[in-house]
C-alpha cells in the first residue's frame, strides 16, 4: 500500500474514509479518541495542499435516514479537534455533497453525511461507489477499525481512485505487523473476555503464531471445565468442551504453551461488595462463580511477560468492571506497561473492552500501541484478510 507521502495532493480533493463511530450519550461524544486519532491525517492533507473530504459511518441505520445517527452532531467536536472549519454536507452523494466540496476554501474540511444512510454502502454497490468517487481525486483510507467491512466507502472506492493509507491506518498496520506479522520472539498473547464462542477462530489462529497463549476471563472457565475441573456456577460454555480440547491439541502440535489460571477469585454473587475468596482451581464450590484470576496466576503471567519480547492483548482477565475482580487485569496490564517503559517489551492491545481495561489500569499510554479498532482488531487476530486493507494493494 501507498502512504499519504507517496501521493501528490496539491489542489486535490482527498476523499478520506475515517471512523467517527464514537460513543455518545444524550447527544454528546463521551470518548473523543477516534476523532483525535484522525487529526494527523487531516492536517497532513491540508499541509500538503489537499482538500480533505471526510466520509464515515455512524452506528447502524440499516440503509435508512435516521436523524439520531446523523454525523452532523460530530461536526462540532471534529472542528474542535482539528482546529479548522468543518463544513457539513447533508448527504454523502449528489447535489448536497457536491455543493459543499466545490465550495471548500483552502484549509477547510468537508464532512459528508453518514454513508450508511444509503443501503448501497453496505452492499458495496459499484454505482454508489462511483457517486462517492465523483467528489474526490484521491482516495485515502484512514479507517482501520472499519476495514473488516467490504463496503463502498471502505473497499469499493479503492478500485476507482488512486488510493493510499492515512496516517492512522499506516500506524495500525505497522504496529500489528510488529505484533503478529513479523514479531520479535518470544511472543505472548493474552486473550480474555466472557465467551469462547466469540473467539474460536482467534484462539485457533493464535496458537499457531505465538509461543505462549494466556487465556483468562470467563472463557478460561470453558477450558478448565474441558480438563475436568468443576467450575461451579461460573459462566461456562460446556457444549464447547470438545472445541476447547481441540484448540489445546492444536497448541501442543504448534509448540504453543497455553496458560490457564491455577488459582481464582470466586464469589456467590457478581456485585459490588460481594464476599469473595481466593481458591485453587480444584477447590471452587458448586455454588460459587469464578470472577478473576488469583494472585498465583497473576504472578505466573508476570513471569511469562518477563521472558517475552512481544505481547498482543485482547480482552480482560476477569470481571474487571467491578472491584476486586479487576485485580488480575490491572496487575498484568501494569506489569506489561512497566516492561514496555524499560524497552524490554513491545506491547500491542486492541478490541472493545481491552482499551477500557487498560485505561482503568491507567496504563494505556504506556503500551507500545493501542489499536482504535474493535471488530477489525479481532478479525486481524483471527488471521483474516481485511477487505479495506487488501483493496489498498
Ligand atoms: C467499530 O465501531 O468497530 C467500527 O466503526 C465498525 O462498526 P460496525 O461494527 O457497525 O461495522
TrEMBL record:
Keyword entries, A-Z: ATP-binding, Cytoplasm, Glycolysis, Kinase, Nucleotide-binding, Transferase
Residues holding substrate: 19-21, 34, 57-60, 116, 149
Listed pathway(s): Carbohydrate degradation; glycolysis; pyruvate from D-glyceraldehyde 3-phosphate: step 2/5
Binding site for ATP: 199, 321, 351-354
Keyword NADP: no
Family: Belongs to the phosphoglycerate kinase family.
Assembly information from the UniProt record: Monomer.
Protein name per its UniProtKB record: Phosphoglycerate kinase
